[in-house]
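Input/output pair, single chain:
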Amino acid sequence: MHCPFCRHPDSRVVDSRATEDGAAIRRRRQCPRCQRRFTTMEAASLTVVKRSGTTEPFSREKVLAGVRKACQGRPVSEDQLALLAQQVEESIRTAGTAEVEAHEVGVAVLTPLRALDEVAYLRFASVYQAFGSLEDFEAAITLLRTERDAVDGAHAGDPL
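Output:
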């Protein structure tokens, strides 16, 4: 790390702390030549590998844009969308790899979107999974109903 004051090519780490959200590390450094101190922020980069083979940095905004389209006209707030995008990013980062396939980003969107709004989930899944017929929609709806009924049935015996 070059000193921003004297451009010396080395520095010593005096203190390290994680940021409040845990997404980066704040390091306090000191230059051995001029003795001045400065702060650096280090964040792990996350790269998305697209189908074409090109790579680009992960963008929470791109996730938001796609989910926002699926939720258009649905009773979903911007705060809920932002939380969903955060959940998607966290689930991808917990995989522990620096590169992730674009397909995996889409898969990471499906579960929290389904919990948020089933209609938006079907919209997103129809594009993401390239539904080609009414049967694809029917199969997805049947699966949703079956899983919802299983959850409702499991809670039916719960005491009030």
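The two ends are 60 Å apart (CA to CA). The longest helix spans residues 134-156.
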